[in-house]
Amino acid sequence: MTWTLREQEGYSVSAICRVLEVPRSTVYYEAKPKDEQGLRDAIEALAGQSPTYGSRRMSKQLRRAPHDMLVNRKRAQRIMREMGLQGRVRRRKPRTTDSQHDYPRYPNLVKSMEATYPDQIWVADITYVRLLWEWVYLAIIMDVYTRAIRGWHLSRSLEGELTLTALRRALVDRVPTIHHSDQGVQYAATDYVDLLQDHHVQISMTAKGQPVENGYAERLIRTIKEEEVYLSDYRDYEEAYIQIGRFIEDVYQTRRIHSALGYLTPVEFEAAWTRPRAEQMSSLMPG
């Protein structure tokens, strides 16, 4: 607009460029819009895998392999907004906790505790999964420090074998200092408590009616529901078992980054914690 005005006042583009000592090409240059299709495709793929990712986590993930894209949060936020990828996923949680029982209750040992090493605190919880013709139930056990899932099981029943199977799997090669859960009958039952005590694990429970005291497990359940369960239409138990297992082992553990872990996956974070300690122990071993 300015160049046209000057020409109308009797100044040629050549004269103005000479005075300002700029090439004529500068006057006619128009910035070409960036081709963002590759970035959009990457965001769409990541949003399909992890629909709860916000722009901060999305930009961090885009900088990692296999994408290796130089993109800041503001740009990721703009594109996600344009693509309509920042809506909230609906959530619904029925009651799976039955605390009306005569088994002993245990005090909350972790209320003000911050985990400082792997397997210091395990948290456990149960949720439902709707299939085409029935309901099934998922029990999970997570290590608070690494956010790694130590054990899980999917069952057609809420009976004690659901949580016992998840616990047995978790205890195969690890033992926590503290096991924390709600006061549900599955966690207070004699068989479950005996298994923990046989491994010298301290037992911790939330206060009755205080699910917020098991917040780490609640958030894990929400992640599994929003990023896997709500996005799937499982035909039967076998299909649900395979797909949920794949999400836990192949996505959550090894590909899903966590802001609390410095934007590493649980596997990466635990390896980073373990490696220097293993090297130190190796250096102390006699040659």
Descriptive key words:
287 residues; alpha/beta; 5-stranded mixed sheet; elongated
Layout of strands and helices, then pairs:
Blueprint: H1 2-8, H2 13-20, H3 24-28, H4 37-49, H5 55-62, H6 73-82, E1 121-130, E2 135-143, E3 149-155, H7 161-170, E4 178-181, H8 185-188, H9 190-198, E5 202-205, H10 215-227, H11 237-252, H12 266-284
Parallel strand pairs: 1-4, 4-5
Antiparallel strand pairs: 1-2, 2-3
Task: Explain this structure.
The chain has twelve helices and five strands. It is α/β, with parallel strands linked by helices and 287 residues long. It has a five-stranded mixed beta sheet, sandwiched between helices. A hairpin with a 4-residue loop joins β1 (121-130) and β2 (135-143).
In the sheet with the most strands, the strands line up as 3-2-1-4-5
Query: β content, as a range?
Result: 5-15%
Give the overall average pLDDT.
84
Poorly predicted runs of 5 or more residues: 1-8, 88-94
Pairing-aware structural class of the strands and helices? alpha/beta
**Oligomeric description of these chains:** single chain
Q: Helical segment tally?
A: 12
Percent of residues in helices = 40-55%
Query: How many beta strands in the DSSP annotation?
Result: 5
Topology pattern, helix = H, strand = E? HHHHHHEEEHEHHEHHH
The biggest sheet, with number of strands, parallel, antiparallel or mixed sense and barrel status, is: 5 strands, mixed
From the spread of the alpha carbons, the general shape counts as: elongated
Any idea what the radius of gyration is? 27 Å
N-end to C-end Cα span: 79 Å
